[in-house]
Amino acid sequence: MRFHTLKLVPLALLLLGGLGSATKAREGETPPAGMVLVPAGQFTPLFRAEQEPKQFPVDAFLIDVLPVTNGDYLEFVRANPKWRRSTVQRLFADEDYLKLWAGDLETGPGVHSNAPVTQVSWFAAKAFATWKGKRLPTTAEWEYAAAASATLQEGGNDPDFIREVRAWYSAPAPARLPTVGSGRANYFGVHDLHGLAWEWVADFNTAMVSGDARGDTGLDRQLFCGAGSEGAKDRGNFPAFMRYGFRSSLKASYTVHNLGFRCARSLTGETK
Amino acid sequence: MKINALSSLCARVLASALLVTAPSLAPGAEAAVAARGPNAKGADPTVTGEETAVLTQAPHVPPPIKRSHATKVIVKLEVKEVVKKLSDGVEYLFWTFGGDVPGSFIRIREGDLVEFHLLNHPSSKMPHNIDLHAVTGPGGGAASSFTAPGHSSQFSFKALNPGLYVYHCATAPVGMHVANGMYGLILVEPKEGLPPVNKEYYIMQGEFYTAGKFGDEGLQYFDQNKAVDERPTYVVFNGAVSSLVGDKAITANVGETVRLFVGNGGPNLISSFHVIGEIFDHVYPEGSTVPTLKNVQTTLVPAGGSAMVDFKVEVPGTYVLVDHSLFRAFNKGALGMLKVSGPENLIAYSGKEVDAVYLGSQAAAGSEAQKQVAALQAQVKAAMTSDPKISALTKDIQIAKGKQVFMQTCFVCHQVNGEGIPNQIPPLAKSDYLMADAERAIRIVLQGQTGEVEVNGKKYNGTMLPLNNLTDEEVANVLTYVRNSFGNSGEAVKPEAVRRVRSEAPAPAANQYE
Predict the structure, then answer these.
(1) Residues of A numbered 150-209 whose beta carbons fall under 8 angstroms of chain B's beta carbons: which are they?
(2) Sign of the four-CA dihedral A113, A116, A119, A120
(3) Which residues of A fall within a CB distance of 8 Å from B122?
(4) Which of A102, B56, B117, B280 could form a disulfide with B60 if both were Cys (CB 3.0 to 4.6 A apart)?
(5) Residue A269 to residues A61, A132, A134, A140: CA-CA distances in angstroms?
(6) Over the stretch A239-250, which tens digit does the pLDDT of each residue have?
């Protein structure tokens, strides 16, 4: 009996999340199915150069409620043969691309079809988004949306949220990822930004290329050494450090077992 | 910079990604990579041959290097995030070099050319890298070894300076990666080697910061606030409480010389490393290859630093390794054992020769010590106002848990086998005094014991301090353990009984010194 109740809760939350966010949409904007509107606001990045402002304005944008699943991605490779496992170019995806799947057009028993698709490269994620008429969210958009807890836009003021986010980093990775949408929707109506898998962003290695001299010590100091937190806004925000660190370790052709993605769209509908 | 400006960076990201990725398609690309740096063929005429490094898990150390020339050494170190035991019933997601804390011991020779491969296991959640203090160059290898899950990195370095060096992960947030166990030791043996010894062991201290208190069971999460405040929950040798205790103790025989390679991963604390009952014949301070210190009792091991110590063991028995910042040793786990076996050496150590009464400054009623005891007892009573957890433990579980308490708190005096110390510490083994009155035993644990007692026909007149930092459950468990071990057999002691004794009024002061 208890189990049934538990299963129903996420579904209810999903519906509530969708309804709640729809009311937040701007006049004349009805988010397409599966997306919610994140209103314009200010984003405070974890790292910034001295001459940069403390906050960036973020334009209103649309973001997927859920990460892209294995099922969604299967449709994509059916329609786009060059992104199948056996045909993809090594330049665009490393040798572990879709390695958890049973075959080119078969997700198989290794993954749940409703779990986030992982072992996909940045190129592949970007191609999927383009195919959908969408794009990948920027770091600023992703972090801005992910800063919200279930009840507050500024999740940093919600101790339960902080605890839940940290718990994921302290727990071992499951062999098989759980399905999407099982957690609570956040303030904007978005699910699974924390606690399920990492997600690609459009400018995943901005932190690496924004320094003056590539490979020089000024940049390394920010990312690797004891002084790494000097330029950081919130030194206590360990999960953000980990996300920036994680993104910096990637190359666009890399695939990782718990790295997936979701799509975004600008309000005008054009991709950035 | 607006968001639009960010997207202009995307083009650069893409360009750089293509630049990085493209060579892997070109034939001969690997040769082009290998031609760079000290790893290039013919670049270093002093290096001959090639071998793969033998890596060992603590407390073991790879054998001394017999080579009289430099060689190319291939080191393959795998990073794994694994759930393991931190203490009895306490688990933690350790981030490890080689599957264990501390990381694998690496042993090379001065002048060796090291081809280092860092492999990040596909199941890892985090990217990792390695900063080896033995590397001369920016970041100690960190920038060249930054590796995403399911990927690997390679870099090479020449071991220019001999010494015992710490290595650690230096991925942001660095403190957390180190606090989760990402450290180990690499020994660069000097060309002439180290003086031969009979036994070598690998000991590395580190702290853990858990959301729960010491001993709170289940999977424990990293507590960042405690780490920033430098208030560790655990301070341990070799990655876990009791990792060097009991049948996991390190061993030697009388007459042998023992060398300890001691490291300190930190991330915060400096260790006052000490072996109870031994004097270090030589200390190579801070991992230097010059034994500048002789006859040392306690040596400092800085966070991110090391020391080599050696000493000849003359007298059989158990030697306790501690961080002599003692609450770390007895309350947080920084405790290990060296068991030395062989014939007694009564010239080096006689054992107790004389036992006489000395009344000089014993605490009398109204004295400072007596006031302290009364204050502690009042504190205990006050603690009782909080709602204590009621435990429904079976006797077997109590015995198992009690053993842990015993091995953390009691064994130093009462000894591992419960025999005590002749004429000084009364035995628990087959003890008529212990078994005669369980409630009296509870009172002694909670309130301490001063004055003469007769145990198994022998008189003892020592002092046992009150152990009122133990919970009701812990007192019940440890008494159930000692009353059912060492040849004893008795009823389980219930936490309720402890609670009852704790809540009773402290005994009138006059009675204690009658």
Answers:
(1) 166-167, 169-173, 175, 198, 202-206, 208-209
(2) positive
(3) 96, 256-257
(4) B56
(5) 9, 11, 8, 19
(6) 777 888 888 889
pLDDT, tens digit, 9 for 90 and up, residues A125-151: 999 999 999 999 998 899 999 999 999
b or e along A104-137 (b: 16 or more beta carbons within 10 Å of the residue's beta carbon)?
A: beebeeebbebbbbbbbbbbbbbbbbeebebbbb
Helix axes B368-383, B495-503, angle to 10 degrees: 130
pLDDT in tens, B160-197: 999 999 999 998 888 999 999 999 999 999 999 999 99
When CB atoms are compared, the residue of A91, A203, A256 closest to B10 is A203
Cβ-based contacts under 8 A for chains A and B: 158
CA separation (Å) from A106 to B17, B121, B236? 30, 25, 48
Assess contact for A83 and A95: CB atoms under 8 A.
no
pLDDT at A162 over 90: no
Whether pTM > 0.80 for this model: the answer is no
* 200-259 of B, contacting A, C-beta below 8 A: 219-222, 224-225, 228
Distance from CA of A97 to the nearest CA of B (A): 11
The token duo for B71 is: 């060689």
A271 touches chain B (CB under 8 A): no
Per-residue pLDDT tens for B225-234? 899 999 999 9
**A:229-268 residues touching chain B, CB 8 A cutoff:** 229, 236, 238, 241-242, 244-246, 248-259
Give the closest of A202, A203, A251 to B21, CB-based.
A251
ipTM of this predicted complex?
0.75
pLDDT reported for residue B367:
67
Give the one of A175, A238, A254 whose C-beta lies nearest to B148's C-beta. Answer: A254
Residue B14 has pLDDT above 50, yes or no: no
